[in-house]
Amino acid sequence: MKTKFFTGDGDKGESKIGNRAVSKSSNLVEFLGGLDELNSWLGLCRVGADNKVSPKDEKGVDVSAALKDIQNSVFIIQAEVAAQGFGYPKSPKITEDKTKKLEETILKIDEILPKIDKFIIVGGTELSSRLDVARAISRRVERLGKKYSEESALSEPLLKFLNRLSSILFALARYVNYRAGITEENPTY
């Protein structure tokens, strides 16, 4: 077999990296699993964004490129967390620059979109809805990261990036609907 997809022995409910095994019910594995799920959703969003939502002018945002950059950052977070959690000293690290890039994109989108002062009902285009699911998952991943950080301190840049992630996904979801000419709907109470 060229690629080893399974051991044949079972894993006894543990995840292994190198010689270290950790229970699959641990906060570490729960957090890493959440990051993996988020990255999968981001990939599904990116497939929907390819060649459908590209900038028509210099103010436009390339949604596909933004999502690919976010996916790359999530992989860096997974590497940083796994290295720390499984006791390996060297790994890539998420930096403040990654969060600044998210913020720049959010500000660019904010210049284009109308101001909101009410909650928005999720929907509109399929891509916008997918981005909202990714946003909700990113918020859960942020909570998992905070929970894991209480037992094994995560870096401040990593936690800040996780916090900003739901903001950019919300902005992208709104932007996609705006570009499609979809009027935002608000809940009625």
Plain-language structure description:
The protein is mainly alpha-helical and 189 residues long. It has a single domain, classed as Hypothetical Protein Ta1238, Chain: A. The chain is 59% helix and 4% strand. The chain has helices at 27-49, 63-85, 96-112, 126-149, 156-179, and strands at residues 14-17, 20-23. Strands 1-2 form a two-stranded antiparallel ribbon. The longest helix is centred in the C-terminal third of the chain and has 24 residues, at 126-149. The mean pLDDT is 86.
CATH structural class? Mainly Alpha
Question: Number of domains in the coordinates?
Answer: 1
User: If you average the pLDDT, what whole number results?
Assistant: 86
- CA-based gyration radius: 18 Å
Structural class: mainly alpha
Principal-axis shape: elongated
- Strand order of the biggest β-sheet: 1-2
Q: Separation of termini?
A: 59 Å
Helix-strand pattern, N to C?
A: EEHHHHH
CATH topology: Hypothetical Protein Ta1238, Chain: A
Task: Give me the count of strands.
Answer: 2
Largest sheet: 2 strands, antiparallel
CATH H-level superfamily title: Cobalamin adenosyltransferase-like
Strand and helix layout:
Elements lengths: L13 E4 L2 E4 L3 H23 L13 H23 L10 H17 L13 H24 L6 H24 L10
Antiparallel strand pairs: 1-2
Helix pairs in contact: 1-2, 1-4, 3-5, 4-5
Short description:
The chain is mainly alpha-helical and 189 residues long. The protein has helices at 27-49, 63-85, 96-112, 126-149, 156-179; strands at residues 14-17, 20-23.
